Amino acid sequence: MLVMRRRAGESLLIGEAIEIEVLEIFGTRVKLGIAAPDSVVIQRKEIKIARDENITAARSVRQQNISSFLNQVASQPAGAPVKNLTDASILTTKCT
Amino acid sequence: MPRIQTKCFDELEYSPDAVCEFPYGIPGFEAEHAFVFLEQPATHPLMFMQSLHRPDVCFILLPVQAADRHYELCLSEENLFALRLPADSQPRIGKDVLCGAMVCAPDDQRPHPTVNLFAPIVVNLKQKIGIQAIQTEYSPRHPLISQDRQEELVACS
User: Fold this and answer.
1) Does B143 lie at the interface with A, CB-CB under 8 angstroms?
2) Burial degree of B114 (CB within 10 A; 0-12, 13-18, 19+)
3) ipTM for the complex?
């Protein structure tokens, strides 16, 4: 990974068309300005990770997977209490 | 009572009070703004987060503390605001908020089931408002069960 030091107000270029400017630095946070062509997708990495995992999670909802998850959760060693999500009667629709 | 078509439990009646609003949807499913949470004794402790309007959109959740009993939420100011929670304290899991991690089945990128502790679903229980929060201290692919236990199970089978 290329490492570069920049101060607030300084920029860096990626290729010819992408510019990233450090606008402000306060404490542990940095405010960046990004100029790029419309064809370049810019997103927060954590949102991309969440999206990919969410899509996989939605595909994982199959009967045989549910049985396998339950077997594994139920096989937790003693001493690892499995807690209720919450007072479920308020929140959830009971399926009986 | 209105009825909902679910992915796993056919058609169910639900109370409109049970519907949770996700004002921003969740990444990958931005158009889904209403979910109900289903549970069933036979599938305890798993819960099902079912889209109200799309039967095919459903997620399996495990309470975060069942995956990691020391799990602690650290919500940003923006998250607390979105959840309409006081800005000066963290909510209590199971009391103020529901906090569940999505479960993923094994695929070509993961040999064993994983739970997403990095991006838990958090719902304000009083207001019925939910978000998917980001918790960078935790892994998006935490093993559903520990490696030791995994090896033990393989040895037994």
Assistant:
1) no
2) buried
3) 0.91
